Target: Phenylacetic acid degradation bifunctional protein PaaZ
Amino acid sequence: MALTLQSFAEGHWVPAGADAVDIPSAVDGRVVATASSTGLDFAAMARFARMVGGPALRAMTFHQRAELLKRLAVHLTERKEALYELSFDTGATRRDSWIDIDGGIGTLFAYASRGRKELPSERFILDGAFEPLSRQGSFVGAHILSPLHGVAVHVNAFNFPCWGLLEKLAPALLAGMPVISKPATSTAYVAHAMVAMIVESGILPPGALQFVAGSTGDLLDHLTGQDVVSFTGSAATSGKLRDHPAVSRNAVRFIAERDSLNAAILGSDAAPESPEFDLFVKEVAREMTAKAGQKCTAIRRVIVPRAQVQAVRDALAARLARQRIGNPRDEAVTMGPLSSQGQRRDVRAQVAELARDAEIVFGDPARVEVSGANAERGAFLSPLLLHCADPIRAERVHHVEAFGPVATLLPYDDLDQAVMLAQRGEGSLVASAFSYDPAVTEQLVMGLAPFHGRLYLLDRDSAKEGTGHGSPLPALVHGGPGRAGGGEEMGGMRGVHHYLQRTALQGSPAKLSALTRQWGAGAPTRTDGPHPFRRSFDELAIGDTVETPSRVITLGDIEHFAHFTGDTFYAHMDEEAAKANPFFPGRVAHGYLILSFAAGLFVDPAPGPLLANYGLERLRFLKPVSPGDSIRVRLTVKAKRLGRLPEYGEVRWDAEVFNQHDETVAQYDVLTMSARAP
Ligand code: NDP
Model:
């Protein structure tokens, strides 16, 4: 029986409108679900997100929101089999669904982990160091990032109903923004099932996630400058949404990820007997058939040296002929149908367009052998390889995106031409280059980088662990310039920043230090009371400082240190040679000696709450220290964050080493772990 999809609005499931449309199975055409959003009050949904979801999320720290993502990921992992089962009807094989379902859950896990490690346990991010703005240091600048107060509207494509929703949801929620998510209708029943699992978990606060099964109605009319639209799909729809009067009038942030004629280039050095040639053929065949080619990142243009065209064509045809096309529920099937009859109609029409510029050299758009299903009732289509003999004169092969198992071979005569052909795509999500020659790779990268969001450079050394041309990864930017939409998603924290406003703060060091909870030069320090190493993490305050007495560094110290460590570099040991060096007045102390003596000056040695020093950052030696000079240290608590375990916290100390003239000779951050108060 067909499922009636409901929307989740203002904290309740809302039944479909009376005009619900049928959503047929890609495999056999039976109606799987029906959906309509008619009757939803979109203005009220936007209000609910802003008034209820936003404040609840913003009341949490980044770490608390990261924890929500992790709990969601665990919750979905335990229930994912139901999603796999539903996904067969979208045409996806189990392998295809792994990208969608496990890939989506993996993205939640990745953002949970990065949020915990890379973001503060705060409700804002301090972006960079204080900027000195005045001669006396009483007026400084700092940048903070804080969550927008609006709603993130996510409009997703049909091809990845789970991953598409989660890869947008994770950075938005981590940033602290509530989401209204709208899946593509043709596969909405999978997204619907996943959202039902999320709602049932009760993990997210009310208003953090709302869901529209059906069209977005007049939602965009209600958007303001505090809102964000993130869209994946066709260039036509993207243009419509970007040009929506409210979106352009209110400068609503708009992220688009859309059509992309991604290229794979076989290097001029990669002959048929080379490992790169085999890797290339394998990757192109995989990209054509995974998800039946319905991936925004799939290879559409196969750019090869003219001399290798026949060899590539034969090798690809042999691989494509081995595909078993049919009912994705059958484990032996390697490629399922397209997502809908409509999609198959579109792809056939696009192939007919391409065929005006190119010849079909593998497959027949009208005929396909199918196992375990009816080739006409399901949206089955053969993989189709085309060959365009004159890609310089041709236009369609660079503009028509056949969103199915379709790619076109384009020969090139030299590398400049290969680059030019790839650029004719006018901006793509990804291109790959298969070469073992560093000069070839560099030429391709310099020509392709400005036109692409990601470049996949595969060769024999990386082949075993390469993540695939078509795989967007949470750590790397996903998006591309020009035709690809000009947006960026994921990319670690870069994706979170879309939902945050960067604001420059100007004020006194004391004020900015108090606001940002980070000590900066000129802010108050506290030197009274016990040594800071005697204070627990909870007792330490920003600005707590040790000012040490000074210590003279003698020539004997330098020689002792040199022989003890084995570092007898001439600048420390040979007066004449040191003098000849333009940076030194003569023999100087080792930088590491200065660090070691500095530690000797500032430590409080007895066992106590300070547990370990786990590193230094930002280290700079700014002035040489000569024998007879003296040094002293100021060590100040600069920032604190909770540790990975409840027993300790992490403390960042600002260390500055001065000489007898109060000039800074070294500066760095010391990173320690300190025990929490009992
Ligand atoms: P669409 O642009 O038609 O749909 C994408 C999303 O936008 C869907 O959720 C759709 O909802 C929604 N949408 C459509 N019209 C509007 C509107 N007026 N206001 C608000 N939302 C709207 O793309 P398709 O998914 O139909 O795919 C068409 C083509 O787009 C493909 O053949 C392919 O060329 C390209 N595409 C590119 C992708 C990429 O990642 N680069 C991914 C998928 C497709 P609904 O389903 O309810 O219409």
Remarks:
- The chain has a mean pLDDT of 96.
- The chain has three domains: 41-123+146-258, 262-471, 508-675.
